[in-house]
Amino acid sequence: MKNMPELKLGIVAVSRDCFPMTLSEGRRKAVAAEYGKRGIIYECPVVVESETDMKKALADVNEAGCNALVVYLGNFGPETPETLLAKYFDGPVMFAAAAEETGDNLIQGRGDAYCGMLNASYNLKLRNIKAYIPEYPVGDAEDVAKMIEEFEPIAKAIIGLNNLKIISFGPRPQDFLACNAPIKQLYNLGVEIEENSELDLFEAFNKHAGDERIPAVVKSMEEELGEGNMKPEILPKLAQYEITLLDWVEAHKGSRDYVAIAGKCWPAFQTQFGFVPCYVNSRLTAMGIPVSCEVDIYGALSEFIGTVVSDDTVTLLDINNTVPKDMYNSEIKGKYDYTLQDTFMGFHCGNTASGKLSFCSMKYQLIMARSLPEEVTQGTLEGDIMPGEITFFRLQSTADAKLRGYIAHGEVLPVATRSFGGIGVFAIPEMGRFYRHVLIEGNYPHHGAVAFGHYGKALYEVFKYIGVEVEEIGFNQPKTMLYKTENPFA
């Protein structure tokens, strides 16, 4: 199944009736032509001067199938129609404005959109209308085309959330309140949730015994694992489970186009199913269907957002353990510009997709095997996470149902972990302070989503668009910028 939104952008020019409409129209054409070098955008032929024009433009972009819209102030722009267009359009909207082109044409060719953008923002706030406004929203055709390009992943994430269902199985494990959070904010975001018992899943799994598709899935797993196929005897059960989940998604997505899963993996899962689901979780996530561990509903939500924004596979990891001093001194200090407190290890049992690991092999879950027979803990995908840029982030509801999030840029270092599970040596500038004054002070759980690349700019705008207050978006602040709770004398 295709589990990611496809974007169809439209652009509508607006014009103040005391300015030449041709000015706004010509500038719109120039923006559309410039953006055409990068992607496809539908150019609405209606220039909006009045509410009647707004209705015509709205009907036009809807008929064209647009699911995201750029409202372009080619001149000062009509305050009411342009904001009502954003109000009635069913999808994410961006506002941008035209810069003046030349000093030789500042009489009939002056549009004053720099001024009009201020009134547009004021009117949006008056009407409680959400819209994306770029960091500096005024520019020439090339500038605006670049703004639209940056709007793409933001728009896709908003569309995805408005059409997302999160399917969960089982309550969180006992004595595991860390990933427990009220689901009210999911509904506020437009996300549906279907909560199921793990017994429902177990019944569905048993009904898939002997499914004729199992051999083909086993073959796919064998090809993916290659020499890392250390537990071939468990693959048929894992294939049966994968088919069970995929069938459940198709049967239960209902009115929604996209799905993420928050799955159960312990304490009774291993003894009843006879394996751990980590590898299957990694495979679905690589298919674009994010699966979180330990029924982490907001983890699944975060993974989905990261998948859409990055257009790539993500993972969910514990912010897990410190890097030992001797290891830091021998392999990091002097080679990379990080302090010991900037580093940590991100880990999970084996849910990171093979394409994001430097090497991998199918193993058993060592932690679980300390108290259970090893044979029922098979199914993890172990290996060091591949080095490179990452974004560590999470969207979370607090216990009193307030939405907040954090975003931090960093990297996975090319340092051998010498450990087990899906794991990497992470480095985030000023991580020690971020850990204390964002993660601990903000009462975040230990799970964080990881996107493979630096996507903080888009994620920050997504968080703002969906209603997270800017003071509730934590990030790894530089040394020169104190956190609100940071002791200035420390």
Give a structural overview.
The chain has 490 residues and is an alpha/beta fold. Helix content is 36%, strand content 20%. The chain has 16 helices and 18 strands. The protein has a six-stranded antiparallel barrel, surrounded by four helices. Strands 2-1-3-4-5 form a five-stranded parallel sheet, sandwiched between helices. Strands 7-6-8-9 form a four-stranded parallel sheet. α1 links the parallel β1 and β2.
Uncertain residue segments: none
User: What is the distance, rounded to the nearest whole angstrom, between the alpha carbons of the first and last residues?
Assistant: 53 Å
Number of helices: 16
Helix content: 25-40%
Strand count, sense and closure of the main sheet? 6 strands, antiparallel, barrel
Rounded average pLDDT: 94
Question: What structural category arises from helix and sheet content?
Answer: alpha/beta
Rg, rounded, reads 25 Å
Strand content: 15-25%
- Strand segment tally: 18
Question: Strands of the largest sheet, in order across it?
Answer: 10-11-16-15-14-17
Which overall shape is indicated by the principal axes computed on the Cα atoms? globular
